[in-house]
Acyl-coenzyme A thioesterase THEM4
Amino acid sequence: MLLCACASAPVQQVSPRLFSSAPRDYSLPNDSWSAEMRRLYDQYDQEPGGGGRWKRLPSYNRFLKYATAGGQCLSRLVQSRARLFTRNIKEPGAAFEYAIFINEEEKRAVCVFQAGHLLEGPPGHVHGGAIATIIDNVTGACATYISGFVLTANLNINYCSPISLGSVVLVDCAVDRVEGRKTWVSCRITSADGSKLHTEATGLFVSVGVSHLFTG
Ligand SMILES: CCCCCCCCCCCCCCCC(=O)SCCNC(=O)CCNC(=O)[C@H](O)C(C)(C)COP(=O)(O)OP(=O)(O)OC[C@H]1O[C@@H](n2cnc3c(N)ncnc32)[C@H](O)[C@@H]1OP(=O)(O)O
């Protein structure tokens, strides 16, 4: 379920069944993925209904773009040119290629992430802001899945070793604690084989009503 609200209209409920056509799911493999990216994806991917531990989260460049109903409030959102930051570069493989898998029982999310050439920071390596972005995205998805709609209140990141452009890494997150409106998530980015630690992070996410986005 996705909630929609704006300052001048009452909060409305919009469900994915209102989608008019199949949107592009960016979490599915494409030709830019390396063999290693594909191998890791296959490792976590499970047949729908197969009872596997991991569920892939679909990923769209804008969730509401494909909805057909919802009145004035929704149409104002749909008509805007906003796009999800991590999915707004058209060239496959150029920036963020990733798929997130959720393990509800363990309250964990794992993301297989291939960092493209447009994410350069230090020569040949991934920009720290791009690393922060993927961490925010994956920890945010993990917190959202467990606690419902949340915003990032705090993110602490230790950059332990640089990530090479074009490489594939694993972003592994877990919900550590939920207390009232607050959800704490920890995160580690490692090399694909798990042998090298690149980044460690913790995040605090606070549950809000979607109307918070319109009222500040
Ligand atoms: C079915 C599911 C599918 C899932 C599929 C999802 C896919 C989806 C993928 C996309 C995932 C993208 C993920 C991006 C996520 C962003 O990037 S969010 C954007 C960046 N974040 C923001 O812009 C947030 C800006 N900040 C705010 O709006 C407000 O400060 C907040 C965080 C909502 C908190 O404000 P508030 O609601 O007024 O709450 P407030 O009463 O101040 O605080 C509540 C509690 O939190 C504590 N707190 C608040 N801020 C802090 C802080 N900075 N440090 C420590 N404690 C704090 C307070 O002390 C308080 O604690 P208690 O007193 O209750 O113990």
